[in-house]
Specification:
Elements: E1 2-7, H1 9-18, H2 25-38, H3 42-48, E2 49-53, E3 60-67, H4 69-72, E4 78-83, H5 84-99, H6 107-117, E5 120-122
């Protein structure tokens, strides 16, 4: 089976954060492929993140960024076709975060959760 999903920059960043950092070799290879596929280009990073500044001094706070509207919009979305193993790897990573009660209370996160859990299956002609 194949699965089609459109992911914004925000979605891709969150999935990359939630993927396991260790595991069996077979899943590790899937995760390495996902990191390559979902990773952001330099141009995407520049458009997607805005540095946080100190309200008093106006100086940038090192290492702190917020997502831009672009990162959250469908304009930043890319379409992916995943096989069963890739889809299940992402789905299980997100389910684990939810089951542990660690799913952030954020509308964009909940939209991503629904997007992954309700992903569209595609026919062989489309994949």
């Amino acid at each position: 089976m194949k699965y089609k999903i459109n992911l914004t920059i925000f979605d891709r960043s969150k999935i990359l954060d939630w993927l396991p950092k260790e595991g069996h070799r077979s899943i590790g290879l899937v995760i390495l492929d996902l990191r390559d596929d979902l990773g952001l280009t330099k141009d995407e990073r520049e458009k997607a993140f805005m540095p946080v500044t100190n309200d008093i001094t106006g100086e940038k706070i090192p290492g702190q960024f917020i997502y831009t509207d672009y990162a959250l919009s469908e304009d930043s979305a890319k379409e992916y076709i995943w096989n069963d193993i890739t889809y299940e790897t992402v789905k299980q990573a997100i389910k684990k975060i939810e089951e542990e009660g660690k799913l952030p209370v954020d509308r964009n996160v909940h939209n991503l959760y629904s997007k992954v859990m309700d992903v569209e299956q595609v026919s062989k002609e489309e994949s």
